[in-house]
């Protein structure tokens, strides 16, 4: 009986952690599309850039996965990022020194990018022309 309770408790922990994760996957991800936003809401279709190099995709995903959760952070995004592997999309606010992100379908949790991730993502975006 004790083993069963431990097993059930372990499964509950795995379920809770798995459901609350912001982790994005690069598995089956062939392209990342990044659009500029006007006024934080309007998608500028003619500004799309696409990351297609597998190494760049991996670097981008690793950078956003290293972000830290922030409570009640509000920001105006300047990019919408779409992942082509059914992971969905997210809004990204990025300048030279700071970066924030939030899933497009769950704005209740926002995340702060590390300084290294901000530099990396800025470099990836600037090295790809629309």
From TrEMBL:
InterPro entries, alphabetized: YhfM-like_dom
Chain ranges of the YhfM-like domain: 46-128
Protein name: YhfM-like domain-containing protein
Species of the source: Ureibacillus acetophenoni
